[in-house]
Design goal:
The complex is a heterodimer of chains A (about 325) and B (about 90). With about 325 residues, chain A is an all-beta fold. Helix content of chain A is about 0%, strand content about 60%. Chain A is globular and about 55 Å long. The radius of gyration of chain B is 13 Å and the shape is globular. Classes of the chains: A mainly beta (about 325), B mainly alpha (about 90).
Chain lengths: ~325, ~90
């Protein structure tokens, strides 16, 4: 049965006194065909309202519509799926796993979240999969090649790369490494390491990445702790999830259009999420951005609703 | 029904908490050993998100097929998680 899923969000961001309001709709469409095929897509429709003069004046809106992926998947066997179309560039864990607004615990992405992703999206072919070693760990991998596209809404760069990960299910620890090579322009390489740890003994989620690109390198590490050990995950306190993220980016040389900050920056963020029933999540956070030009405070507030419906009625 | 499904979903996100909670659904979890599908769900899907609140078997098939690609699950993972989400 085809379904439509995704998230609807409303975000408010105040950075250095300049307020920005963003309503977002991010639908995911899934169309399974037979036992092995799947057509899937995700889009993002955002209207960004900023004040006319930055911190004063009337709000003016600007619409952004992005086709994040539109891909056809074929499950060749248990350990291999072949994908063709437009897909999220597989580098690290942020771009592929954490960008959906109903998953990302903070509203914005880390500085280094774009390293190795060639803008976030790739048009081409991808092979991916995983297998259980039978010795207490499993392997997962992704390899892709993307072509140059200048088609409106389907832009991509000529690049190739992938990610290789090892997952230890007994401790829910995963370690991965990524590589990307741009095959146009300066033909630079990007490398990355990522880690994800969710111990069974506590409702703790720790994730982090280090990445290096021709223009600079940096890291982010994030920890979230759901207070569900206090009277259960559905108590008033148990729905709370304090968060912290630390990130740093060091600019080594200016490269136009590499989607990275123009100068070296570092930023701690502190936040809290509150999980309401019926897939609604509230978010609030405070961050402080430091760089050589101007330090600034960043306040963020938001609400996200995650939905899932069949695309048309059917019997089970 | 939605509320109980939500309790169920939230319990999946905090598997390590089950033994310490007082919610009715969580208590029920304490008395039954998790099956393979639940283990696979906790080990893979639960690291990033909760389970959807309610899924029909046909919806679950589409969702798990999607997650097999996203999360690089094996065919065995897909089968067991589907069995768990839509028994």
């Amino acid at each position: 049965m085809p379904i439509i899923s995704g998230g609807v969000g409303f975000f408010d961001n105040k950075e250095g006194g300049a307020n920005s309001i963003q309503p977002v709709v991010a639908p995911v469409v899934l169309i399974p065909l037979g036992d092995r095929w799947l057509i899937e897509s995700r889009s993002n429709f955002t209207e960004v309202y900023n004040r006319q003069d930055g911190t004063t004046g009337a709000y003016q809106g600007q619409f952004f519509g992005t086709l994040e992926y539109l891909q056809v998947d074929y499950n060749v066997n248990s350990a291999l799926t072949v994908t063709a179309g437009r897909f999220l560039t597989p580098f690290g864990i942020f771009n592929e796993r954490l960008t959906p607004i109903w998953i990302n615990r903070f509203q914005d992405g880390p500085y280094t979240g774009t390293i190795g992703t060639a803008g976030g999206y790739a048009d081409g072919l991808m092979a991916r999969g995983g297998w259980d070693s039978g010795n207490g760990y499993s392997i997962n991998y992704t390899a892709y090649a993307s072509t140059l596209s200048t088609v409106n809404k389907l832009e991509s760069e000529r690049s190739a790369g992938g990610r290789f990960g090892v997952f230890f299910p007994k401790t829910r620890l995963e370690i991965g490494t990524s590589y990307n090579q741009s095959l146009q322009g300066a033909r630079g390489n990007s490398e990355g390491l990522d880690v994800s740890w969710d111990p069974y003994s506590a409702p703790l989620d720790v994730k982090g990445e280090w990445a290096h690109a021709p223009g600079g390198q940096g890291y982010w590490i994030e920890a979230a702790y759901r207070l569900s050990q206090y009277r259960g995950s559905n108590s008033a306190i148990g729905r709370l999830e304090p968060l912290i993220r630390m990130e740093q980016f060091h600019r080594s040389q200016p490269i136009a259009g590499d989607f990275l900050p123009g100068v070296s920056e570092r930023r701690p963020d502190f936040g809290v999420n509150y999980y309401l029933p019926h897939e609604v999540r509230l978010h609030a956070s405070y961050g402080r951005q430091f760089n050589d030009q101007r330090d600034s405070n960043i306040w963020e507030f938001g609400v996200v609703y995650r939905f899932l419906f069949p695309l048309w009625p059917g019997r089970d | 029904m939605l509320m109980s499904a939500c309790l169920f979903a939230a319990a999946q996100k905090q598997p390590g908490v089950l033994a310490n909670t007082v919610q009715p659904d969580d208590k029920a979890k304490q008395t039954s050993a998790p099956d393979d599908g639940e283990k696979r769900f906790e080990a893979n899907c639960g690291r990033c998100h909760n389970a959807p609140e309610s899924l029909s078997p046909r919806e679950a098939r589409a969702v798990v097929r999607h997650m097999r690609v996203r999360a690089r699950l094996t065919a065995e993972d897909e089968r067991l998680i589907l069995q768990y989400l839509a028994p």
